[in-house]
Amino acid sequence: MTMHSYDSDIIAWANEQAHLLRSGRFDCLDIAHLAEEIEDVGKSEQRELAHRMAVLLSHLLKWQYQPERRGSSWERTIREQRRALILRLKRTPSLKAMLRDADWWEEIWADAIAAAIAETGLEIFPENCSWTPSEILTPDWLPE
């Protein structure tokens, strides 16, 4: 078996590592890079959750602060982001801990505010989120 380098061809390297694992050749594994890649899977899930939540929050802000511009596009985005968030939390229950992390919410809220300002030109949004995670993820809930 040709040994592939993590740095020169990560796909070939990953396939090779999977083959080594399945065949029980643990002594040939690239343990350091495997550990790094496994950690990155978790970070990727966390980034996805954060991104989707910021998109959802920015649309909820626009919904609340621009009632004259409400439309099916915003509703669709809100619905899609909620669905994806709920599904991600169901498939990866350990992500729910992030919903209880005040620092995480502060960062997500800041991202949502920045996106809402960029999209609306308004700078009237509250400094802190007054909505609960339960409200935010409730399928039919919309701020007034």
Structure description:
The protein is mainly alpha-helical and 144 residues long. The chain has a domain at 44-137. 64% of the residues lie in helices and 0% in strands. The protein contains five helices and no strands. The longest helix is centred in the middle third of the chain and has 35 residues, at 31-65. The protein is elongated, with a radius of gyration of 21 Å. The mean pLDDT is 94.
Write out key terms for the chains shown.
about 140 residues; mainly alpha; about 0% strand
Chain-wise SSE layout:
Blueprint: H1 10-22, H2 31-65, H3 72-91, H4 102-120, H5 133-137
Helix pairs in contact: 2-3, 2-4
Order of helices and strands: HHHHH
Count of individual beta strands? 0
Structural class: mainly alpha
How would you sum up the major sheet?
A: none
